[in-house]
Amino acid sequence: MDKDLILLGHGSGGKLSHQLLDELIIPTLSGVPVAGQNDAAVVEHNGQRLAFTTDSYVVDPIFFPGGNIGSLAVNGTVNDLAMMGARPLFMSVGLILEEGMSRRELAIILAAMREAADRAGVAIVTGDTKVVPRGKADRLFINTSGVGVVENGVEINGCKAQVGDRVIINGTIGDHGIAVLAAREGLELATDIESDCAALNGLVTELLQDGEALHVLRDPTRGGVATTLKEIAIQSGVTITLREEALPLKSGVRGVCSILGLDPLYVANEGKLLAIVAPDRADAALARMRRHPLGSDAAIIGEVTGASDGRVQLETSVGGVRGVEMLAGEQLPRIC
Amino acid sequence: MNYLDEFRDRQVVLGFAERIRGLVTGRSTPMTFMEICGTHTMAIYQYGIRSLLPAEVRLISGPGCPVCVTPNGYVDRAIALARLPGTVIATFGDMVRVPGSSTSLMEERARGADIRIVYSPLDAVALAARNPQLQVIFLGVGFETTAPAIAGSILAAEQRGLANYFVLTAHKTIPVPMQILAADPELSIDGYLCPAHVSAIIGANAYRPLAEEQGVPCVVTGFEPTDVMQGVEMLVRQVLAGESRVENQYRRVVTAEGNARAQAVLAQVFTPCDVEWRGIGVIPGSGLRIAEPYARYDAERAIPVAVEELQEHRGCLCGEILKGKVSPFDCPLFATTCTPEAPVGACMVSSEGTCAAAYKYGR
Hints:
CATH topology of the largest domain in chain A: Phosphoribosyl-aminoimidazole Synthetase, Chain A, domain 2
Shape of chain A: globular
Order of helices and strands of chain B: HEHEHEHEHEHEHEHHEHEHEEHHH
Strand content of chain A: 25-35%
CATH class of the largest domain in chain A: Alpha Beta
Helix content of chain B: 25-40%
Distance between the termini of chain B: 34 Å
CATH topology of the largest domain in chain B: Rossmann fold
Structural class of chain B: alpha/beta
Radius of gyration of chain A: 19 Å
CATH architecture of the largest domain in chain B: 3-Layer(aba) Sandwich
Shape of chain B: globular
Order of helices and strands of chain A: HEEEEHEHEEEHHEHEHEHEEE
Distance between the termini of chain A: 26 Å
Strand order of the largest sheet of chain B: 4-3-5-6-11-10
Number of helices of chain B: 14
Radius of gyration of chain B: 21 Å
Strand content of chain B: 15-25%
Oligomer: heterodimer
Number of strands of chain B: 11
Strand order of the largest sheet of chain A: 9-11-8-12-10-13-14
């Protein structure tokens, strides 16, 4: 393999992404290995802790059932802040437009960004706009950065999962990835599947009421639930055991996954969070989630079953046990 | 009834497991069954089926992953074609990552080749119709399940009068290699879990020579966990009774004769040929090439191109793994040099490859 080439898989959020970060980007720019990284950096200034994050959005197509690139760009960055227990406050927006893009479509996308920001309670306070020649970008790319405050006493971190903790998710998995795939490929069998794109900071505020019992929060975006839990397992040095039967899954998503040979555990979400909670507070956290509009299908999907070098295993719906690894390369459909 | 949940029912699966255990407990020699099809291999790993079976029943994986058995030379030719100006390679996703002698289509794409992943060969025909200035070459890889759709794409291109649609074929048929593996004394296969979707095309009767002349029990089996468990139980019962018949567990889809219309399209567009299987070698009559009347759609004949010299990958045990002789865990490259991100052999690439399944689910 030619090591000099950047491949699409380097942007999958899975193993190749981790390798690129660990081998090149992080050693050059900062030095903290990716296994120690969270969704946002938490920095301290004059006794005040701030969460700071950035994300670029290149989704294709830019409009999909349940959202568009604009709502995604705001909600995604809000969620990265919320996953550190931060209250999102301010956001920047960088737009890279392709020559020839429709101004009317841009207006729709900007309106969606404003609406998403208002709903999440963040202010878009600065930004930048560039236009590149036709063919040098794909209609529209967006970068957003966000800043939030982390209140005293809030200590959420991917390294804090402990043996006995329960793993909770706030609803069905794989909706976003399948909705976008269906929109891109024109899969007519998936007409009723919408992206779950949503800001999760309101739900996180509810969960923070469980105080120190809330150990880890992370949103399973690219790479899906499997990759995200594997990251947490490595970061915390634990084994996480999932129960396949407990995974909330829309029948349409399951159907498309079955037909295309995709594993929903690896399909992206944009309005889901995984909460790792001390066992004695798990039921209370689950109840809180279910009372929230973004958590009505919440479920306990597994638990931290032991100390290890970072293993995830799945008790299958039929009673077998298998390992769960990070997404490798791009997730591709089967061919026969 | 939604035709998924019923076939993933835990109690039913555990019931089969218990009955199988009851049937074989105390036997001194294990029974070895081969699942031919890559989709079976994946399902068996994905649902942890091996962990439900007693030690007396051993499942080994066969050569039924079409990407995995496609030899390096084919990938090299596809890469050579991809480098031609004005050429689009259209393919199902898995082929993109398969390593050829020195590079892969994925690397060529990163270097600028126009390689597009499609979900149906008809998408490639539509691409050719929209872009008459380009030559669109579809990579026709697959067994009897895929081949009719690709034959159909050639007929569609003919109907639309397209002169810029081509297929580079590496189609293979399943029954002959099953007969060769069944005769291999090193393997001593006690029974076959026969493919589900391939059988929907060729019909369960296609395995009768195996069962009746070679004495190997055959059960056409579906891809869901209850199907696999029931298929295993049916094989166990045949072995215990000293029988070798073709049984059809997957009656909700497969008939004895198969799909006559698909068979007719195959016979119209393709003719049988000798073809190389990675790891097994050339098997007479086990391939499908484009028949003479459609030769202008055959990329190999219609578009001459210089292909680089063939190089095999050292140390890769894909060939032995495809024959079921060793497991991925026996390969020194498995999960060390050879990973899904940097695959050495095709078995690590395909979503249905034995090594990919073992890497993803089995460790």
